[in-house]
Specification:
Length: 213
């Protein structure tokens, strides 16, 4: 069991209306969750890191997370997870939540879907949800040349979230999250300012006894 990988399974939006490539239905969510509850250990990101660092001492471990911060998630998916006491991380794009503006990728797709409100993010944090950083404006970080702008997107978003929820977020997820976006200088910045982990989106496994960052 110690050699079993640790998997991060990320979602964006769970809803029955306005389907797109980053939305699953409530029924799809429930079906997936029921399968996961039966077949894997659903763990927090901190427990996932422990298992990467020390060995996976149970079944296949899966950590659930959400990117961006969609208001629809609070209708069904989030209450379901909280009711079942299943841990998850909620990565927030702060500019859109602060201003109530749809995410850039939704605007490009012609679907201006509502983001979470600040009050919803605070309520999630108060309920014990791990709140993570997903930048300030959801840019492709590989296209940012200025170090100060990179800091605004990563550190600035962390500081805004810390002011909202009363504690400093310790986990970061890359917008788009493919290999080109995971630049060495942005990873170094994420490390240097004290984040405990960063998450990608291009697939693969975290193996026990690898570095948990």
């Amino acid at each position: 069991y110690a050699e079993l990988p640790v998997v991060g399974l990320f979602l964006h939006r769970v809803a029955d209306d306005s389907p797109n490539d980053w939305t699953i239905t409530n029924q799809q969510f429930d079906t997936t969750l029921a399968w996961l509850e039966k077949h894997v250990d659903l763990v927090s990101i901190n427990e996932a890191q422990r298992r990467i660092r020390e060995g996976n001492d149970g079944r296949l471990a899966v950590h659930l997370s959400f990117d961006d911060g969609y208001a629809d998630n609070c209708m069904h998916a989030v209450p379901t997870l909280l009711n079942k006491q299943i841990p998850f991380t909620y990565y927030v794009t702060t500019h859109n939540v602060r201003n109530g503006k749809p995410f850039p990728h939704d605007l490009r797709a012609g679907q201006p879907l509502p983001p979470n409100s600040i009050d919803e993010i605070v309520a999630l944090a108060d309920a014990g949800v791990e709140i993570g950083v997903h930048t300030r404006t959801h840019p492709d970080l590989s296209e940012i040349r200025s170090h100060s702008e990179l800091e605004r997107e990563i550190v600035g978003a962390r500081d805004v979230l810390a002011a909202w929820i009363g504690r400093e977020p310790k986990h970061f997820a890359y917008p788009f999250g493919l290999k080109p976006q995971l630049t060495p200088r942005s990873i170094q910045l994420v490390h240097d300012v004290g984040f405990r982990s960063y998450c990608s989106a291009y697939g693969g496994y975290n193996f026990p006894f690898d570095g948990p960052f």
